[in-house]
Design goal:
By secondary structure, the chain is α/β, with parallel strands linked by helices. Helices cover 53% and strands 14% of the residues. A six-stranded parallel sheet has the order 2-1-3-4-5-6, sandwiched between helices. It starts with a strand and ends with a helix.
């Protein structure tokens, strides 16, 4: 019997997943959480064999939680289950240590089979998303550019960002200009939207 943790902020989706997985003979849902900051405490408390994590949740999403969960509980396999089938998200999830990446519009039987394959040692990725990720290539943003663009997402000025990240204003402006150029956009807010759409933020 494999113990399962579900992290999903939409209560109806979370409950449905739990009910459907509990119908499988080899799964037992032992924890359900609605925010990213609940994932690690719940996992340490219940010791699941697999964690099904959504990407976008309050309190930090599944991508942020994946690396921490893999470090604190390496026996727990992480499978990202998401609506957001973006190539950049797939790369970030795998880099963080996720063993599976599936989209929510698949039948629950396929999800159960994907979980079993992950537990058997495979890396399981939605085929259409894998093809899109290969054609899209890696994120062009450097880690620092990504950090600056994330800081700019709330409309902060270059001065605000420089204070927050301990960078000079000119360095912040240079990074933002580079982000705009790399995303093929006209300003920082368009760059934020484009990077989010690609799954780079």
């Amino acid at each position: 019997m494999t113990r399962v943790l579900i992290a999903e902020d939409q209560a109806m989706m979370r409950d449905a997943l739990a009910v459907l997985l509990d119908l499988e003979d080899d799964f037992e849902v032992v924890a359900q959480v609605a925010s990213g900051d609940e994932i690690l405490p719940a996992a340490l408390r219940t010791k699941p064999g697999v964690a099904l994590l959504d990407i976008e949740m309050p309190g930090g999403g599944g991508l942020d939680a994946t690396a921490g969960l893999r470090a604190a509980l390496p026996s727990c396999a992480v499978v990202i289950v998401t609506t957001f089938g973006r190539p950049g998200y797939l790369r970030r999830a795998l880099d963080a240590g996720a063993r599976g990446f599936v989209v929510k519009d698949r039948p629950v039987g396929e999800l159960a089979q994907a979980i079993r394959r992950v537990l058997a040692g495979e890396v399981v990725v939605d085929p259409a998303l894998a093809a899109a990720a290969l054609s899209a290539g890696p994120s062009p943003l450097t880690p620092r550019e990504r950090e600056v663009l994330v800081a700019a997402a709330d409309g902060s000025t270059a001065a605000d960002i420089s204070r927050r990240l301990h960078l000079s204003e000119s360095t912040v402006r240079n990074h933002l200009s580079s982000c705009i150029a790399k995303t093929g956009t006209r300003n920082r807010m368009e760059a934020v939207r484009a990077a989010r759409h690609s799954g780079w933020l």
